[in-house]
Amino acid sequence: LLAASERHSDHALASAMAFSAGEAFRKAAKLAEAETSYQRVVEQWPTSEWADDSLQSLVQLTWESGQFDRACEFGEQFAEQFPESDLNPIVCQTVARAMIKLGRYSDASELLAPHVAGALDASVRPATPAAQDSSGGTDGPVETDPPASSNDLTARDELASIEAANVYYSAVAALGSERYQDALDVLETIKSLNSPRELVDGIRVARASAFMKLERYDEAIEPLDQYLVSQPDGPDAAKCLTQLAIACAQLHRWADVER
Description:
The chain has 259 residues and is an all-alpha fold. It has 13 helices and no strands.
């Protein structure tokens, strides 16, 4: 594929072939070759429909390999070249996670702010009159949109998952900045979103951490208990068990501490 794209660089499908080569190299764990292929698309066909996909792949590739500074650099390039791309939410999420790893909590919060605001706005947006039931007081016959296709639902579910995760990482950035109440306020809003199941336990740990920092020990106990029931051998189980013991001790619940 890569050789074909080089021989036929003027062909309409050349950028698609180079991108596909990058995907194949990536799946084969040949990351250097994958990066070269993606870079070639971005540099040689910057206006092709595969250019934003390639740059997003570079962001993801460098994130996955722990090159957080480079992930941020590619993210900045993406924002400049493709400000209107549909891939912006996931790119911003990946870059924000890289910033959090680098301790750039304020930068991560700033980057995610518009996406968080957009997610929350969408979650509370009222139904249009046409979508209301006729008993709701609308004049004339009610016209409703046709049922969404399964593909539409899948796309919506994926977008909802990305939006909820962006809100979650915004809260993580607030925790890193020691803005514990802000973190709790942001986490509270996730209840109005369709939170993916895989985020639930992360939200519990984040809420508990904020409550502990604020010395609101009684409120920390519930999310700690919930995490330990859900993941008794999970990656944060030891941390949560320690925090639970401390919270119970602060509340003089000695029997629970012993347990």
